[in-house]
């Protein structure tokens, strides 16, 4: 399979490059500054030159608070640039697998969201990802919308590392109890995306580790498994954690569509254990 991967320097993009290359696929990796996805003519030329079967598109501006401060920039990078990829890909018959977010939902549901529940983003990041979804759906019939949530990966900054760094430094911990979603391991997500693309069935998918929890429960599990059982966490509400963006409070998702194709991710607790073990942080 001949694939282009955007955001190839990012944690998800680089993992996709690694796994697909190891499996013997033809992989063209791209990122800034080599290719500016906002420039339609550059994107069109690049895609016409390589003529891929699929474009895996995890590239995004993922600074949720930054998006809240610059919403038009967020919509341009996460939304309209996806439309550029979708249109150029359609010209060469290529499919596009776009990585979206649970933040396209408003978080007011009483149960986990299914793939075709109505999107209603309440912050600029979520809106920008929804714009990307719509740009792809209406431009290219060969598409996969892949929504995920609370991604944690090796290297860089994420929630697990922030919690453990604070605990190791003896800093007080305050974690929100009324924000709920699915913690998702980058390595599991990459494998699931590759399986879906190999199957090639267009559609909307929720790829998240099974189960869901609050931010507080997530932090408590991480600390306990890493040997910080006695480290206290102050429980706070989202309203007490002031930030530019307002995340959806209850936004876990169900994996229905991918599961029908036998593409499932393991439970989030097992994923956290594997992450900690690989980092050498699991308590003995």
Question: What attributes characterize this protein structure?
Answer:
284 residues; 40% helix; 6-stranded parallel beta sheet; alpha/beta; two-stranded parallel sheet
Structural description of this entry:
- The protein is of the alpha/beta class and 284 residues long.
- The protein has one domain: Rossmann fold (3-Layer(aba) Sandwich).
- The chain is built from 10 helices and 12 strands.
- The protein has helices at residues 11-22, 40-50, 64-69, 71-91, 124-137, 159-168, 186-199, 215-225, 257-260, 268-279; strands at 2-5, 26-29, 54-57, 95-101, 143-148, 151-152, 174-176, 180-181, 184-185, 203-206, 213-214, 234-236.
- The protein has a 6-stranded parallel sheet with strand order 2-1-3-4-5-10, sandwiched between helices. A two-stranded parallel ribbon has the order 6-9.
Instruction: Look at the structure and give the mean pLDDT.
Output: 97
Q: What is the CATH superfamily?
A: NAD(P)-binding Rossmann-like Domain
Work out the number of β strands: 12
Shape: globular
For the biggest β-sheet, the strand order reads 2-1-3-4-5-10
